[in-house]
Amino acid sequence: MPKTILLQLDTDPLPSVFDRVVAVDAGVDELFSYGGVTPANVTSLVHGAMFTRGPADLKSTAIFVGGSNVAAGEELLTAVRNTFFGPVHVSTMMDSNGSNTTAAAAVLAARRHLDLSTTTAVILGGTGPVGFRAAQLLLSEGAKVRLVSRSINKAAEATTKLQGLVPGCDATPFGLTASGVSKEVLDGAELIIAAGAAGVTFLTAASWQGLPSLKVAIDVNAVPPLGLEGISVMDKNVMHGQVICYGAIGIGGTKMRIHKAAVTRLFSSNALNLDTDEIYLLGKELA
């Protein structure tokens, strides 16, 4: 068998060291990393992956799309996959800013304690890359999702997109009020996932710990102050009052296992596209 080669295409000027380390730890034989990659300059790089090995050996080459800008990563992934034709392609994975692996880890943490098919979930920062993907995964499991953003218009746009991705889903948009998260959003919620920008606190400890229906609270932000006051980044299945809590590092172990396993899985075929749903399904296998 030829050596496994991972082509790391990063939309940032310098390719992510984090993603490089994970690739090495996942056992990739050779790692080719490029920064500043855009849809306009990616074609020759993809051709290099496509045309240097015979059809039987193409599964030993794969492409990882990363970078801090998730929208740019999505555009780049589309450009990469549009370059393939017929059977001449390699497997791809997109995890810009860790959005897919983090969302998968957060939902899997909730799944350990809740029947997601009957859960009412609140996603704070639901139009961001992790929040949106967590909402998508919860909806695919049958949960009811209340998507909260600072802008009700953005929340509505994201909800419409989610309804296209998960037909028949129960997703409702909400905007923050002058006083923050409204009582209507929180009433009856069993799960809260805070996935907003760093430095934004959505709820005080008293406001979420006092919710009679709440069973699980997860904050994916590792930079204080957290979105849910009172949760620690280290929390992993820790009780705060009657609520089971997870912080960013608390779900980090699962995120890392999923990331490494996804990189390894890329080399099982030359036709995989590991994006939100596929990465979550892989996480479910690991669980």
Give a written overview of the molecule:
By secondary structure, this protein is an alpha/beta fold. It has two domains: 5-94 and 255-286, Rossmann fold (3-Layer(aba) Sandwich); 101-246, Rossmann fold (3-Layer(aba) Sandwich). The chain has ten helices and twelve strands. It has helices at residues 17-25, 43-50, 70-83, 99-111, 129-140, 152-165, 183-186, 205-209, 252-265, 276-286; strands spanning 5-10, 30-34, 61-66, 91-94, 120-124, 144-149, 170-175, 191-194, 216-219, 236-240, 243-246, 273-274. The strands form two sheets. A seven-stranded mixed sheet has the order 7-6-5-8-9-11-10, with helices on one face. A five-stranded parallel sheet has the order 2-1-3-4-12, sandwiched between helices. β10 and β11 form a beta hairpin. α4 (99-111) crosses α9, α4 (99-111) packs across α10 and α9 (252-265) packs across α10. The longest helix is centred in the N-terminal third of the chain and has 14 residues, at 70-83. It is elongated and about 60 Å long. The mean pLDDT is 96.
What's this entry about, in short?
This protein has 287 residues and is an alpha/beta fold.
Helix-strand layout with pairing:
Elements: E1 5-10, H1 17-25, E2 30-34, H2 43-50, E3 61-66, H3 70-83, E4 91-94, H4 99-111, E5 120-124, H5 129-140, E6 144-149, H6 152-165, E7 170-175, H7 183-186, E8 191-194, H8 205-209, E9 216-219, E10 236-240, E11 243-246, H9 252-265, E12 273-274, H10 276-286
Parallel strand pairs: 1-2, 1-3, 3-4, 4-12, 5-6, 5-8, 6-7, 8-9, 9-11
Antiparallel strand pairs: 10-11
